[in-house]
Amino acid sequence: MFSADECAALISLAESDAKWTEAEVYGKGPTRDEVNKEYRNSERILRFDKAAADKLYEKLLPYVQELVKIERGSEWEGIVGAKGNVSGKWMLAGYVE
């Protein structure tokens, strides 16, 4: 799917203007977001980059056609919620501002 060079370029892009930080679980702490390593033990860089997102979207879309639309009763329903409790329709939209 991604070559070693493509992976290195994506990592380099992510690290070009940010540092890896512990991934917080938003809204879970009593007064702030928290890092709960029993729930999530990872680091991340959040990058909001339309050009990079569009490139990734185009690269991945052929491999996730079945995930373009997810709704109650679909094979992939559990990705967006508990089976039987998904309301509405989830659409793969690429990058949306």
Task: Provide a brief overview of the structure.
The protein is α+β, with helices and mostly antiparallel strands. 24% of the residues lie in helices and 10% in strands. It folds into two domains: 1-47, no CATH class; 49-97, no CATH class.
Ordered list of secondary-structure elements with their pairings:
Elements: H1 4-15, E1 21-22, E2 43-44, H2 50-60, E3 69-71, E4 89-91
Antiparallel strand pairs: 1-2, 3-4
**Order of strands across the widest beta sheet?**
1-2
Number of domains: 2
Quaternary structure of the protein: single chain
What structural class do helix, strand and pairing data support?
Answer: alpha+beta
| Helix fraction by DSSP (H/I, runs of at least 4) | 10-25%
Number of helical stretches of at least 4 residues: 2
N/C terminus separation: 26 Å
Task: Using the CA coordinates, give the radius of gyration.
Answer: 17 Å
- Averaged pLDDT, please? 80
Query: Uncertain runs with pLDDT below 50, 5 residues or more?
Result: none
